[in-house]
């Protein structure tokens, strides 16, 4: 079979396949969905445009979607997060020969430029023949952070307006690149994204930042198709964001710097799910952790968990390590970075790089950048002092390490798979029965959340207690669940 793809090096496929094989063993949720739906093929006819870190774990997700009947095109949602061997194995496919590619078109490699990144995002929608006939193109999006969804929405918006606006002086560099990508697209086909938007049945979104964008679109009445918020499945955000980061944050810091964390002072900005996992991990290494928060509830939680809660300005010259985890912007300013101790380590695990003012840092007169190794740079101030910045302010757990481990991603990706099945079957675009998903944002029903958790119990030797009928009646719930009301917070 031949198809278009662009990755770093196809000869890495064997190394990738070994890692995928081991990951499958650690991903019981995905593997049991493959078994459950092998015959039914609920994703037959689905053409999924996927934008999510092209890691080994994502390879298992992609091959699960294919095993359930889907056709897939894939890009990474971050310029640094691709594991090149995983990308190669996915392109080659499980049968493992480069003479006859049986896999999936992937457009992803570690260390993309921003121009390349947006080119890859466009490629996941470039299904053969789609410009002549949109109905042969993507009909589902699987997104992480919302960039694929953004491309379709902005593209369709500009096409309706008859052109792409000029960039404003203060527009960030990345936004200029998006505008250029869409300008190019419109010259090739002035109605490309309008056609794509009309055929998309829905999007399933992985992360907090992407979900926030979806709710904004829905609130403004601009969401063009239904969306399932996968992030807020309990078995996603309360596991991946927290326990996943608890593993992959220290992994990234250690691979990048080899600095001993015990005894050091670390600031964690934000005490949501990712912040909680980060603070726990750093404390586990013996660091003294200080938390910053804007939300009194989260600040109180941090205090009761035993952390000092402070304002960054008051501690910026004391800490050895600064980690942002908020999904917000301008958490650490260039001015604050100049006040840090010499060789302080600065990194981010929130979705986008604007948590740290990288643009402001680059504009400091006389500042110098020294590459220590890939994704580790020392920024030397004119005063002589320096800071160590990881992954240029982008997700350091994926840039400096390999992201979350398989077991926790099995839980997240089981939710993704179930959400794809739900939306593909019941989007109002094609389904007018009861329970059709309209162009709004939904979470999966609690019973499915409980199912995802259940799929992971055996592997950990968990023996669940079963409710008796009598106990269930007393609590007013069903023996088979759901066990909690919607408002329960875990
Ligand atoms: P969350 O909403 O639970 O937590 C964010 C916290 O940051 C909130 O408590 C909020 O009050 C606080 N915050 C916002 N602005 C702040 C400011 N200026 N100063 C101090 N605190 C502030 O969100 P969650 O799930 O923890 O996700 C955070 C980010 O991490 C998102 O961008 C999400 O997409 C990303 N993420 C990254 C992962 C990774 O592997 N690196 C995994 C999962 C999520």
Describe the structure.
- Pathway: Amino-acid biosynthesis; L-homocysteine biosynthesis; L-homocysteine from S-adenosyl-L-homocysteine: step 1/1.
- One of its GO terms (biological process) is L-homocysteine biosynthetic process.
- InterPro entries: Adenosylhomocyst_ase-like_sf (IPR042172), Adenosylhomocysteinase-like (IPR000043), Ado_hCys_hydrolase_NAD-bd (IPR015878), NAD(P)-bd_dom_sf (IPR036291), S-Ado-L-homoCys_hydrolase_CS (IPR020082).
- This protein is of the alpha/beta class and about 500 residues long.
- It has two domains: about 10-235 and about 405-450, Adenosylhomocysteinase-like (Rossmann fold, 3-Layer(aba) Sandwich); about 240-400, 3-Layer(aba) Sandwich (Rossmann fold), CATH 3.40.50.720.
- It contains 19 helices and 15 strands.
- The strands form two sheets. An eight-stranded mixed sheet has the order 9-8-7-10-11-14-13-12. A seven-stranded parallel sheet has the order 3-2-1-4-5-6-15, with helices on both faces.
- Helix 10 (about 235-255) crosses helix 17 (about 405-425).
- The structure holds 1,4-dihydronicotinamide adenine dinucleotide.
By DSSP, the count of extended strands is 15
Query: In percent terms, what proportion of residues is strand?
Result: 5-15%
Q: What is the CATH class designation of the largest domain? A: Alpha Beta
Please give the share of residues in helix: 40-55%
Largest sheet: 8 strands, mixed
Rg result? 23 Å
CATH superfamily of the largest domain: Adenosylhomocysteinase-like
Instruction: Specify the structural class.
Output: alpha/beta
Number of helices: 19
The N- to C-terminal Cα distance equals: 48 Å
**What would CATH call the architecture of the largest domain?**
3-Layer(aba) Sandwich
Low-confidence stretches: none
Average per-residue pLDDT, rounded, comes to: 97
The kinds of small molecule bound in this structure are: 1,4-dihydronicotinamide adenine dinucleotide
CATH topology of the largest domain: Rossmann fold
Strand order of the largest sheet: 9-8-7-10-11-14-13-12
Tally of separate domains: 2
The best one-word shape is: globular
């Amino acid at each position: 079979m031949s198809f278009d793809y662009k990755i770093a090096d196809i000869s890495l496929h064997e190394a990738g396949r070994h890692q995928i094989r081991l990951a499958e063993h650690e991903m019981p949720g995905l593997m049991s969905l493959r078994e459950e739906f092998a015959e039914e093929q609920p994703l037959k006819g689905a053409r999924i445009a996927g934008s999510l870190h092209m890691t080994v774990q994502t390879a298992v997700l992609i091959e699960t979607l294919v095993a359930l009947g889907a056709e897939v095109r894939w890009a990474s949602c971050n310029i640094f997060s691709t594991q090149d061997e995983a990308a190669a194995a996915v392109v080659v496919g499980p049968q493992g020969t480069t003479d006859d590619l049986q896999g999936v078109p992937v457009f992803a490699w570690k260390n993309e430029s921003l121009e390349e990144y947006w080119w890859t995002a466009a490629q996941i929608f470039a299904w053969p023949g789609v410009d002549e006939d949109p109905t042969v193109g993507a009909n589902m999006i699987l997104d992480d952070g919302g960039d694929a969804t953004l491309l379709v929405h902005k593209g369709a918006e500009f096409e309706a307006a008859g052109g792409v606006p000029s960039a404003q002086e203060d527009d960030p560099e990345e936004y200029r690149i998006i505008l250029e990508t869409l300008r190019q697209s419109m010259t090739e086909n002035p109605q490309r994204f309008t056609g794509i938007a009309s055929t998309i049945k829905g999007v399933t979104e992985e992360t907090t930042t992407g979900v926030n964008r979806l709710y904004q679109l829905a609130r403004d009445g601009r969401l063009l198709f239904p969306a399932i918020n996968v992030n807020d499945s309990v078995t996603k955000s309360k596991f991946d964001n927290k326990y996943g980061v608890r593993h992959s944050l220290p992994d990234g810091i250690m691979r990048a710097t080899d600095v001993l964390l015990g005894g050091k002072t670390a600031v964690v900005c934000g005490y949501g799910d990712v912040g909680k996992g980060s603070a726990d991990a750093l404390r586990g290494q013996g660091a003294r952790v200080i938390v910053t928060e804007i939300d009194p509830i989260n600040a109180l939680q941090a205090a009761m968990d035993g952390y000092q809660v402070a304002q960054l300005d008051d501690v910026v010259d004391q800490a050895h390590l600064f980690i942002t985890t908020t999904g917000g912007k301008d958490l650490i300013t260039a001015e604050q970075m100049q006040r840090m101790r010499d060789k302080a380590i600065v990194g981010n695990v929130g979705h986008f790089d604007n948590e740290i003012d990288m643009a402001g840092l680059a504009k400091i007169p006389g500042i110098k950048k020294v590459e220590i190794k890939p994704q580790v740079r020392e920024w030397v101030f004119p005063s002589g002092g320096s800071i160590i910045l990881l992954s240029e302010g982008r997700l350091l757990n994926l840039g400096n390490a390999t992201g979350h481990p398989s077991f926790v991603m099995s839980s997240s990706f089981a939710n993704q798979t179930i959400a794809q099945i739900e939306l593909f079957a019941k989007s109002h675009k094609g389904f007018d029965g009861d329970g059709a998903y309209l162009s709004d944002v939904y979470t999966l029903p609690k019973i499915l959340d409980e199912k995802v958790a259940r799929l992971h119990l055996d592997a950990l030797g968990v023996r669940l207690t079963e409710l008796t009928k009598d106990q269930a009646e007393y609590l007013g719930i069903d023996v088979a669940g759901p066990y909690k009301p919607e408002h329960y917070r875990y």
